[in-house]
């Protein structure tokens, strides 16, 4: 069974925030986004045509004819979106405030099911080729979800979601950094940073059946190196050791928490990460440095962001416009980011 690491106390709050999104409110049961995890290894075995299998291996995400509707009023936010993400295909999502960028990431996270269309993640190392769906009602926990085929992946290196305000756990600095991939004894933290409609924590689509298959647990040296890599080496001396415990959301600035979240990424090395304004509190130099680090680590990323500097670290742009309530026309476009894009931006 896949476990998406949402602390139960937050899961409840998510239900409150998104309760209107619950599929039980839908008048038309066919109006639900279908979220599927596909096992690349099994797929490869199933394919007799080698080139096709190779193509599928490199694909990480497939969005097909996705229309996002708001939960109760069923107002369309995004019309008929289709796109594929391959390894090292870094996508920047832009658009005016309220156009639906975060809602799109929620849909990818299985936290927004109102709408239609299909989202397929290609996960390496999973056990079954069709791993199952995870609609919003299946707010991830250890529980099972009636009517939902349970994913069976044990690949904790799959997909991570990283919000603007990273989720801080109660524990030592070491535990912060090992979260969520090696989070056996971590206690969820209650602090002032309650979910405010954004995804409030780093979340890995991972599994719980067999801890032994997690990647090798980082050593103290690995962790110290990663802190240096995200330019946080100085906090070790400030807080004495990796094994000191503080209320981290209070003693670290938001920019430091964002760098810490990138340190977690560098330790866990997911195949794909969804970044929702995850560098918003950082200066441009630190932002550039973090993007270079995750790219060098082989992590493919989809980012939401407003800063123009972000164009430099992405290959493609998905622009979402505010949907016209009187139209069913597509309200998005995708274009490559190249020298021309950068040149045109510099003239604005
Ligand atoms: N649970 C919900 N129920 C009803 N409407 C919602 C819900 N969540 C978001 N919305 C609405 O959907 C629209 C899109 O919100 P979303 O957060 O996706 O926008 P965004 O493009 O990420 O905006 P920003 O750039 O300001 O973060 C907004 O009008 C918002 O009010």
TrEMBL record:
Residues 61-345 form the ABC transporter domain. It comes from the Eukaryota. This is ABC transporter domain-containing protein. It holds the Pfam family ABC_tran. SUPFAM superfamilies: P-loop containing nucleoside triphosphate hydrolases. CDD domains: ABCD_peroxisomal_ALDP (cd03223). One of its GO terms (molecular function) is ATP binding. InterPro entries: AAA+_ATPase (IPR003593), ABC_transporter-like_ATP-bd (IPR003439), ABC_transporter-like_CS (IPR017871), ABC_transporter_sub-D (IPR050835), P-loop_NTPase (IPR027417). It comes from Vitis rotundifolia (Muscadine grape).
């Amino acid at each position: 069974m896949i476990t998406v690491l949402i602390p139960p106390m937050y899961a409840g709050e998510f239900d409150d925030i998104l309760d209107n999104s619950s599929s039980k409110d839908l008048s038309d049961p066919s109006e639900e986004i279908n979220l599927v995890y596909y096992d690349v290894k099994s797929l490869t075995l199933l394919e007799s045509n080698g080139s096709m299998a190779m193509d599928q291996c490199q694909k990480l995400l497939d969005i097909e004819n996705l229309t996002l509707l708001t939960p109760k009023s069923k107002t369309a936010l995004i019309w008929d979106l289709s796109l594929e993400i391959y390894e090292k295909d870094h996508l920047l999502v832009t658009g005016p405030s309220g156009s639906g960028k975060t809602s799109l990431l929620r849909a990818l996270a299985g936290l927004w099911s109102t709408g239609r269309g299909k989202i397929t993640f290609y996960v390496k190392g999973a056990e079954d080729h069709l791993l199952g769906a995870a609609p919003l009602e299946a707010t991830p926990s250890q529980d099972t979800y009636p009517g939902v085929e349970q994913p069976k992946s044990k690949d904790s290196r799959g997909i991570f979601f990283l919000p603007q305000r990273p989720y801080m756990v109660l524990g030592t600095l070491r535990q912060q950094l090992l979260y969520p991939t090696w989070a056996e004894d971590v206690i969820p933290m209650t602090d002032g940073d309650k979910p405010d409609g954004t995804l409030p924590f780093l979340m890995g689509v991972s599994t719980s059946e067999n801890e032994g298959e997690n990647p090798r647990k980082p050593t103290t040296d690995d962790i110290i190196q990663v802190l240096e890599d995200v330019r946080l080496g100085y906090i070790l001396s400030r807080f004495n050791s990796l094994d000191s415990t503080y209320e981290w959301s209070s003693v670290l600035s938001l920019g430091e928490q964002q760098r810490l979240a990138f340190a977690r990424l560098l330790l866990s090395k997911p195949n794909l990460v969804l970044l929702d304004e995850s560098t918003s509190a950082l200066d441009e130099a630190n932002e550039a440095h973090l993007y270079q680090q995750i790219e060098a680590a082989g992590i493919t990323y989809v980012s939401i962001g407003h800063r123009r500097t972000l164009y430099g670290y992405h290959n493609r742009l998905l622009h979402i416009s505010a949907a016209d309530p009187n139209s069913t026309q597509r309200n998005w476009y995708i274009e490559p980011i190249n020298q021309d894009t950068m040149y045109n931006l510099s003239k604005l």
